[in-house]
Amino acid sequence: MALAAITGWAHSKFGKLDGVDPEEMISQVAMDAIMHAGLSFDEIDSIHLGTFNGGFLYQDFPSSLLLNKIPELRFRPSTRVENACATGSAAFHSGLNSVRAGDSRHALVIGFEKMTERSNAEVGEILLKCSYAKEEAGVAGGFAGVFGNIIARAYFERYGDQSDAIAAIAAKNHRNGAANPYAHMRRDLGYEFCRHVSDKNPFVAGPLKRTDCSMVSDGAAALIISAPPQALARPQRVSIKAVAHVNDFLPLSRRDPTAFEGGRLAWGKALSRAGIALEDLSFVETHDCFTIAELIEYEAMGLAKPGQGAQIILDGVTRKDGRFPVNPSGGLKAKGHPVGATGVSMHVMAAMQLAGQAGDMQLARADRAGIFNMGGAAVANYVSILESAK
């Protein structure tokens, strides 16, 4: 039996959205999601707003910003949620918990971030707050340095040079992103460009090049979570079969940086709760903030044994036309990574596939989806299992 259902969704374009006010971003996706679900403003019982901020914007305390543009939602309970790069999934869990507790018939979940008003150096410093400051604040390269200079280097030292594999992941996701109208970068860069260092693709941190790093983006996404009785009357619905949330130690020094143990446990819990195996999923949207992350996530979800994730991508298993598509949306790599919006976006992309509304991104088979969204370096780990209600 489903926990609840996603009954409406909306997604802004991701990218450098100059002159677009954050209030306008969140209100537009909120109105579009409510309309898509066929609901009135009066039927929304709670609002769950995810944004990391961390210094991207001077304006904080955003929980009531939506009311400036949609006064009809005045006096609804509205909560700001934050859990680093998993902020969007934390907001999703907040909305789901409200529905499951009986406090909401329909919960509005929004994720957004406005990042591009800061310089690249400032963005790197702000994102570094998602690591353990006492030990990792001085890592060269900002947050990219955590994944490049610590995680990727440790993985390469233990299992050998993975440059072919991470380039193949980057090329796959850019190829998929070219079909995504919401993506920050809609360009198929090709394997050769991603594989080789050049003026346009320099090293950023450790063995990671520019094409191994997700885009700094602005954007917003929203969805409606409805209780089972109310969901039946909606024009489209996607069942939420299971969720899991696992937090690990924040310092990388207290765990193996080459194994996302919290992610592995979250996957195990979610699949067990859904009563299925990984192979029962049609596709996965996973958190490829850096290509090395997607590689390790293949192992965390159970597609490959430790150190063998490279073979999965090199054999074409996770291509859009492969046996187990991963990131048919283009992932964070091509779609962009507006931190607070990412987790909500991943759920929206999966819902579009399962409802047969993904347009040029649509997979031939889309019955069940897995979503993995993480905060920090596999610190806050969220997995959702969604199923088509068609």
Automatic annotation (TrEMBL):
Residues 254-387 form the Thiolase C-terminal domain. One of its GO terms (molecular function) is acetyl-CoA C-acyltransferase activity. Pfam families: Thiolase_C_1 (PF22691), Thiolase_N (PF00108). Residues 12-184 form the Thiolase N-terminal domain. It comes from the Bacteria. SUPFAM superfamilies: Thiolase-like. CDD domains: SCP-x_thiolase. Gene3D superfamilies: 3.40.47.10. Keywords: Transferase. This is Acetyl-CoA C-acetyltransferase. The lineage of its organism: Bacteria, Pseudomonadati, Pseudomonadota, Betaproteobacteria, Burkholderiales.
